[in-house]
Amino acid sequence: MNLSSATFSTTAHPAAPAPLTRVRSLAGNTGLGALARLVAMSLPLALALFLALALSARAQDTALPADLVGKWLAEDIGGNGVIDYAQSVLEIEEAGTVAGSTGCNTMFGQIRQGGGVLKIGPLAVTRKACPPAVMDQERKFVDAINAAVDYRSERGKLILLDAKSEPVVTLTLM
Q: Does the first or last residue of the chain, that is N or C, have fewer Cβ atoms within 10 Å of its Cβ?
C-alpha cells in the first residue's frame, strides 16, 4: 500500500476529528527528502573510504623507499606547470597510504612499490565544484598520479613517470 495515496474514513467513530483524506510523504513535508538525497550522494564516497581503509589495512610486503615518503607539492603537471593558488599536494606515508589535495578536492588511497613498479590508487576524490581552470588541473593531477608506474627522486623533488619513463608530474618536498 502506498501511503502517499492512502485514504482513511472516520465514519465508524463520530467523536474522532475531521477525516484524514490524504497522507503526504513524510520526506516531502519535513525536508527529509533533501537529507535522503544528501545521504544517497554520500554513499559512493563512504564506500570508497571503506575500501581504501580496508585495502590499506592489509600488510605491505615491503616498506616504501624513504625517498617516496613525505608531503609533496606539485610544481609541474604534464609539462604545463600549475596554477599557483590551487596547490595540488600528494602526501605519501610509510604505511602505504596517500592523501592530499587536488587544489579543489581532497583525495586518498594507497600506494605500493615493488618489483620495479609503482602503483598509486585507486584514489577516492571528493566532488566539490571549483572554477573550470582548477577543475582542469585537478583532472590532470589525478590522471598523472594514476598513470605513474615509476619514479625518480632528485634533490628534494619527486618525479612520477609513466610507462614510457616520461615525467607526468614533478613534485617538491614541502
A: N
